[in-house]
Write a structure and sequence with these properties.
4-stranded mixed beta sheet; 9 helices; Transcription Regulator spoIIAA; globular; alpha/beta; 338 residues; Rossmann fold
């Protein structure tokens, strides 16, 4: 990485973000993407701000120690304020430490708080996983969820650290169920809820396979590939006013594999059947190889076959801090009404 090239590209990126950053600051947001390399000149490099933390990440080739230092210096020169900096290479092998490429000053490795729309979230540069505790590109989906949550029951599937669930509760949801198989992520989600003063009785975390839970809620069979031998949390069928469906691109679970490219309907159908009449699903698809047109057609076919045809489907894309080089951003957000 040429430090002078990065400084020039960063300056251009910050200038392009000027109006958006003003808008985000006005709504109480201090976490956003500062540099999106694939569309802004350095493929494989991103830089995000989470409150007082600046987190740089590479996804292909790692930075050298000297390049990481030059990156930090360029950020300090371009961005006013007192920040902590950390660099993580996402291509590390299991058991490998991020310290191989960058050893941040100790204060950068603590726990921080960032805000989105006035809602507070915990963040760490490094923890047991490799993903940040808050996915910034999903901001428009959380914004939509918060605006629609007043008085509704909300089901948050693949909840991770419950960012969407906390947002729904802050928007006045009557209750929120957050489902994820990772107990460590849900623990962070519970602390996010407490950080925002959300009453525990309104905020439920469920450590279980999402398909197992949503199929039970929908009144569908849950035997899956392990048959009846697998033990799982029993849940009675019921319906929700809002479902937030944000699956990973691919995951192998105890019931079946999650595959948003080849079999999104396996997720969408039970989510539809767990929805109240007049309710809405906010669904996401992160696969770059899936077009809006193909995904929308699959959602509509699935809804028709399930006997719950869509009355509406509104498209939403990431904010301007996640620019797309071809006008087709990987993250697609659909708000579906029945």
């Amino acid at each position: 990485m040429n430090p002078a090239d990065f400084a020039r590209l960063l300056s251009r990126a910050l200038e392009a973000r000027g109006p958006l950053l003003e808008k985000l600051r006005a709504e109480g947001t201090d976490c956003y993407r500062l540099f999106h390399g694939i569309a802004e000149g350095l493929t494989g490099l991103t830089v995000d701000r989470y409150g007082p933390l600046l987190l740089a990440q590479t996804f292909r080739d790692p930075l050298s120690t000297s390049d990481a230092a030059a990156l930090e210096a360029a950020l300090n020169a371009a961005i006013p304020g007192d920040f902590h900096f950390a660099y993580n290479h996402r291509g590390k092998r299991p058991g490998e430490s991020f310290d191989k490429w960058h050893r941040p000053e100790p204060n950068a490795l603590g726990e921080f708080t960032c805000s989105e729309g006035g809602v507070k979230y915990l963040i760490r540069a490094r923890h047991r996983g490799i993903d940040p505790w808050l996915f910034l590109d999903l901001r428009p989906g959380r914004r939509l969820l918060r605006a629609a949550a007043q008085g509704r029951s909300v089901l948050n599937l693949f909840a991770y650290t419950c960012g969407a669930g906390v947002c729904a509760a802050a928007g006045g949801a009557a209750e929120v169920w957050n489902v994820d198989f990772a107990g460590s992520s849900l623990e962070v989600g519970g602390r996010n809820a407490a950080l925002n003063g959300i009453p525990p009785e309104k905020f439920r975390t469920i450590k279980e396979d999402c398909l197992t839970v949503v199929r039970q809620l929908a009144g569908l069979d849950v035997r899956g590939r392990f048959g009846k031998k697998r033990s799982y949390l029993r849940i009675e069928p019921r319906r929700f006013g809002l479902v937030f469906l944000d699956p990973p691109a691919w995951a192998k679970g105890p019931l079946a594999a999650v595959d948003i490219v080849r079999d999104y309907p396996a997720l969408f159908k039970p989510a539809l059947l767990a929805l109240e009449p007049g309710g809405r699903i906010i669904a996401t698809n992160h696969a770059a190889g899936v077009s809006w047109e193909d995904w929308e057609a699959a959602l509509r076919r699935c809804a028709d076959k399930a006997g719950r045809p869509l009355k509406s489907l509104e498209r939403t894309e990431p904010d301007g801090d996640f620019p797309s080089f071809d006008g087709r951003p990987p993250l697609k957000i659909a708000v579906c009404g029945i």
